[in-house]
């Protein structure tokens, strides 16, 4: 199997507390991978290590066939927490700021606006956007550098049903364009509709990783993993 990203025994400790405990992920190229887990399970900490925001305490990250290094961030787009927007600027202007920083041509702005369906926003300031539009603009910012891997942390949080549907369709379109997506969420039904493969994290440990098979009860597996990890933690 062609893996774009692998982690081996990835660990992160904060002041003696273990937030991520020996996590080994296998992310297949040109797929959507759902990283599931309850709030506080360690999902965001893992994603922050993959994007260089946090340094692992131990373990290895392999990206595109080699040991991860900071230059790989040119090939990794990410939306972690709220999109980093200048609310007094339009969608185009927000993207223009980033293209100047990255040394990219203006033609790329129009391309990503088209991908996330924000070409009609014109002079509207991003501070007046709906939450769904802000999320899509955040994804547009992450797509500017034409990444091979896109990392999205709880992207549907707070969205209304229409916003969720629009974002779901957008995410599902990426693998056909050569973009692998890692999507973290605690909402099982969302991941079930988007992801091809899933990993379930609980109490900092990876309790399950597999392709999603029809007829499999994701809720049952999720509850089993969480209960098993809670039992281990209590012993």
Search tags:
235 residues; alpha/beta; Rossmann fold; 6-stranded mixed beta sheet; 5-stranded antiparallel beta sheet; globular
- Structural class, by secondary structure, is alpha/beta
Q: What is the level-2 CATH architecture name? A: 3-Layer(aba) Sandwich
What strand order characterises the main sheet?
7-8-9-4-10-11
User: What is the count of helical runs?
Assistant: 7
Distance between the termini: 37 Å
> Share of helix among residues?
25-40%
Report the CATH C-level class.
Alpha Beta
Mean pLDDT: 91
Sheet with most strands: 6 strands, mixed
Instruction: Please name the CATH topology.
Output: Rossmann fold
Structure overview:
This protein has a single domain, classed as P-loop containing nucleotide triphosphate hydrolases (Rossmann fold). It is built from 7 helices and 11 strands. The mean pLDDT is 91. It is 34% helix and 27% strand. The protein is globular, with a radius of gyration of 18 Å. With 235 residues, it is an alpha/beta fold. Strands 7-8-9-4-10-11 form a 6-stranded mixed β-sheet, sandwiched between helices. The longest helix has 17 residues, at 218-234. This is Putative ABC transporter ATP-binding protein YxlF. Keywords: ATP-binding, Hydrolase, Nucleotide-binding, Transport. Belongs to the ABC transporter superfamily. InterPro entries: AAA+_ATPase, ABC_Gallidermin_ATP-bd, ABC_transporter-like_ATP-bd, ABC_transporter-like_CS, P-loop_NTPase. It is an enzyme of class 3 (hydrolase).
């Amino acid at each position: 199997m062609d893996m774009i990203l692998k982690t081996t025994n990835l660990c992160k400790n904060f002041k003696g507390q273990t937030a991520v405990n020996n996590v080994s992920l296998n992310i297949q190229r040109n797929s959507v991978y759902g990283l599931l887990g309850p709030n506080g399970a360690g999902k965001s900490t893992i994603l922050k290590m993959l994007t260089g925001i946090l340094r692992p305490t131990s373990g290895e990250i392999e990206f595109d066939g080699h040991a991860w290094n900071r230059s790989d961030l040119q090939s990794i787009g990410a939306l972690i927490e709220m999109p980093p927007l200048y609310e007094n600027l339009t969608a185009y202007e927000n993207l223009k700021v980033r293209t100047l920083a990255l040394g990219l041509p203006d033609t790329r702005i129009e391309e990503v606006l088209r991908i996330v369906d924000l070409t009609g926003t014109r002079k509207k300031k991003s501070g007046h956007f709906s939450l769904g539009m802000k999320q899509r603009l955040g994804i547009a910012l992450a797509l500017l550098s034409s990444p091979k891997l896109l990392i999205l942390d709880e992207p549907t949080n707070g969205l209304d049903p229409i916003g969720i549907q629009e974002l779901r369709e957008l995410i599902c379109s990426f693998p056909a364009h050569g973009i692998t997506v890692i999507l973290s969420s605690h909402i099982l039904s969302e991941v079930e509709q988007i992801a091809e493969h899933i990993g379930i994290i609980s109490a900092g440990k990876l309790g399950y990783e597999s392709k999603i098979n029809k007829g499999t009860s994701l809720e049952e597996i999720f509850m089993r993993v969480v209960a098993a990890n809670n039992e281990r933690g209590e012993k």
